[in-house]
Amino acid sequence: MGFKMGIVGLPNVGKSTLFNALTRTAAAQASNFPFCTIEPNVGEVSVPDARLDKLAEIAGSKQIIPTRMTFVDIAGLVKGASKGEGLGNQFLANIREVDAIAHVLRCFEDDDITHVEGRVDPVADADTIDTELMVADIESCEKRLANLQRKLKGGDKEAADQERLLKAALAALSDGQPARTVKVAAEDLKQWRMLQLLTTKPVLYVCNVSEDDAAKGNALTARVAEMAASQGNSHVIISARIEEELAQLEPEEAEVFLEEMGLEEPGLDRLIKAGYALLGLQTYFTVGPKEARAWTIKAGTLAPQAAGVIHGDFERGFIRAETVAYADYVALGGESKAREAGKLRAEGKTYLVQDGDVMHFLFNT
C-alpha cells in the first residue's frame, strides 16, 4: 500500500505549483486567480528510498520497483466553504477521500501574487481552513445524531455506539478542537473511522517559502512551527518554485542545484518522510535477481498481514517469513551470506515486521 495525501490550502498559496513539481507533470493549471483547480488532480510518484537501490545492487536485481504515493491537488478553499461558498462542497467531498492532509501555507511575500484575504498570515490561513472543516463536522454530527433517534428508541446497540462517539466528537468540536483530539478506544476504532469526519485526518503543514528561505525558513515559518507543535502536528519547509525547477533537471544537475541552494534533499523527499511519520508507515523489501521491491505497511503490522499486502493468498496460507534486517543484508553482502552468518531468521505469525526488513514469505496455496 502507498497512501493518498490531499494538498489543500487557500487560493494562490502555491498548491498547484507544488503538485506539478511533485508529480513531474503540468496536469494542474497553476494560475494567479482563485479556483484554477476545479477538479481534483491526482498524481502518483515513486517514494524515494536509497535502501532499495542498494539492495538491488547487491542482489543484481534486473528491476527496481519502489512503493508509490498519491497526491491529490484539491480546489482552493475560502471562508464560508462549509456553507457552500466558492467550491466548498466539492472541496469537502474530495478531502474525505484522502488519508492525510498536506496543508500548504503561504510563507512568502510577493506583491505580484494576490492573497485572497489581502494579507500574508499563514497562521490565520490555517485557522480559516481548520474552522471550515470543524463547522462541516459539527453539522455532520448533528445530522447523524438526529437520524439515529428512531434506531435508539428501538434499542439498537450499534446506533448507541454511534451516538456515544458522535457526542464525543461534537463535544471536542464545539470546544474548538478537531475530532482527532478525541481519545478513542481500540474496540471503537472501526466505528470511529466510519464516521468519516474531516478533522480526524492527520495534518502536515507545508510552509511554501521563497527560494532564499528554502534552507532555513523565516519568521513566518517559525510561527507555523510553533502552531504545529502546540497542536501535536508537524511541518515541513518547501519552496514550490525550487521544486518546480528541480522537476525539469536531470539527476546530476538536480544534485548540483540542491547543493547551490544549501539543501540536502528535494522537498519531495522531506514531504514523503514527514507523511510516513504522520501516518505511522514503514517499508519492508522483497529482493531477488528478478526484482527488488519496496512495500509500505503500517508500523505494528504482523508478518501475515504484511504478506497480504503482496497477495491475499500469502496471508491466508502464511507459514513463516524468512527475514533479515537491512543493515545485516548490506553488511554481509546478501541473503546467502546473511544465512551463513545466522542473521536470516525464520519468523512466525506473531512477528512484528520492522522498518527495512528484507523478507521472503512461505505459504500454502
Task: Write a concise synopsis of the structure shown.
The chain has 365 residues and is α/β, with parallel strands linked by helices. 41% of the residues lie in helices and 19% in strands. Helix 1 runs parallel beside helix 9 and helix 4 runs antiparallel to helix 6 (157-174).
Fill in the keyword field for this structure.
single chain; 365 residues; alpha/beta; six-stranded mixed β-sheet; three-stranded mixed β-sheet; 41% helix
How does this model look, in words?
With 365 residues, the protein is an alpha/beta fold. 41% of the residues lie in helices and 19% in strands. It has 15 helices and 12 strands. Strands 2-4-1-5-6-7 form a 6-stranded mixed β-sheet, with helices on both faces. A 3-stranded mixed β-sheet has the order 3-9-8, with helices on both faces. Helix 1 (15-22) runs parallel beside helix 9 (240-246) and helix 4 (122-147) packs antiparallel against helix 6 (157-174). The chain is flat. The protein starts with a strand and ends with a strand. Residues 25-38 and 84-88 have low confidence and may be disordered.
SSE topology:
Layout: E1 4-8, H1 15-22, E2 41-46, H2 50-59, E3 63-65, E4 68-73, H3 88-95, E5 100-106, H4 122-147, H5 149-153, H6 157-174, H7 189-194, E6 203-208, H8 219-231, E7 234-238, H9 240-246, H10 251-260, H11 267-279, E8 281-287, E9 291-298, H12 303-310, H13 312-316, E10 318-324, H14 326-332, H15 335-340, E11 345-347, E12 358-363
Parallel strand pairs: 1-4, 1-5, 3-9, 5-6, 6-7
Antiparallel strand pairs: 2-4, 8-9, 10-11, 10-12
